[in-house]
Amino acid sequence: MVEKIPMTASGHQALEEELKRLTSIERPRIINAISEARAHGDLSENAEYHAAKEQQSLNEGRIAELEDKLGRAEIIDVSKLSGSKIKFGATVKLIDEDSEQEKTYQIVGDMEADVKSGRISISSPIARALIGKDIGDTVEVVAPGGAHSYEVVDVRYV
């Protein structure tokens, strides 16, 4: 059974754009670099050739990974979701009960997570603790940085 990978429509589109860039821009550029390096003669001591071959290997590996993830993607249209219960795609506003700091996160798929932009992976400790909770609930999160307690103050689906 093929395991589906949940992702938002915007996350799916970003991965498709990356795949297109890698196949239509990076792949030809690397192939060109390999043939230029080949023209310089002896391949055993040709650093440009070996660097280009390594780039090719990394690029092809990423292409294969993206094709696999996109092939197993289950696109979830967050705009069609509603309610106050937290589930995949929710944008959640939390108050840290120790520091009174407000934090806002959107729960997204593993491939589209980016903590700096407020998007956390569905498999992260905080997202796992939030799933199924409601506005007003308190959530205990045990993360690598220590235990934190948060109050859920808002849940939106945008």
Describe the secondary-structure layout.
Elements: E1 5-8, H1 9-38, H2 47-71, E2 73-76, E3 91-96, E4 102-108, E5 119-121, H3 125-130, E6 138-143, E7 146-156
Parallel strand pairs: 1-2, 4-5
Antiparallel strand pairs: 3-4, 3-7, 6-7
Q: What descriptors fit this protein?
A:
158 residues, 39% helix, two-stranded parallel sheet, five-stranded mixed sheet, Helix Hairpins, Chitinase A, domain 3, alpha/beta, 3 helices, elongated
Number of contiguous helices: 3
Number of strands: 7
Q: Write down the CATH topology of the largest domain.
A: Chitinase A, domain 3
Q: What fraction strand?
A: 25-35%
Q: Main sheet, how many strands, which sense, barrel?
A: 5 strands, mixed
Q: Assign the CATH class of the largest domain.
A: Alpha Beta
User: Architecture of the largest domain in CATH?
Assistant: Roll
Sheet/helix structural class: alpha/beta
Give the tally of structural domains.
2
State the separation between the terminal residues, measured CA to CA: 31 Å
Listing every helix as H and every strand as E from the N terminus to the C terminus, the arrangement reads EHHEEEEHEE
- The share of residues in helices is 25-40%
Pfam families: GreA_GreB, GreA_GreB_N
GO molecular function: DNA binding; RNA polymerase binding; translation elongation factor activity
Domain Transcription elongation factor GreA/GreB C-terminal: 84-157
Protein name: Transcription elongation factor GreA
